[in-house]
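User: I'll paste a sequence; please echo it back and then give the predicted structure.

Assistant: Echoing your sequence first, then the prediction.
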Amino acid sequence: MPLGQKSSQHPGTTARDIERTELGSTLERGFLLEGQDKFYNLLKRGWDELYFFAPYYWGAINISQRQIFTFTEGDTALVTAPDLDTLKKEAERYYNYLRNQGESVAGYGEQESILRKINLMRGR
C-alpha cells in the first residue's frame, strides 16, 4: 500500500507499509495523531484490552477477527493472524515483549482472560 493512502483495515489511520510477522501474520503499520478515542471506539465495537499503560501506549485485540491493534505515541500496528493458534502466539509475544521491557504489571491484568478467550474460541 503506498505511503499516505488511507488504510482499509483500520479507518482513521494512514497506512505506511504492510509486512509479515515472524509467525506469518500480516502487519500493517500506520500513524494516528490521537489514540485514546480510537481505543475507546475499538472497545465499544467488541474489541478487548490487550494492555493499557497510558493514552499513548496501548493495545487491543479482536479475537473473532483474529486481529491485534497497537498504538504507541502515534505509531499504529494492525496484526491479522491467519488462525487462532497464531493469534494466541502473537498475543503472547506482545506480553513477553512488555515484560522484557520492564513495564509495570499494570497492563497484565487482561493477559489471562485474553488467552483464556482465545482458547475458548479455538475449542469451538
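The chain has one domain: 14-122. Strands lie at 14-20, 26-31, 48-54, 57-62, 67-72, 75-80.
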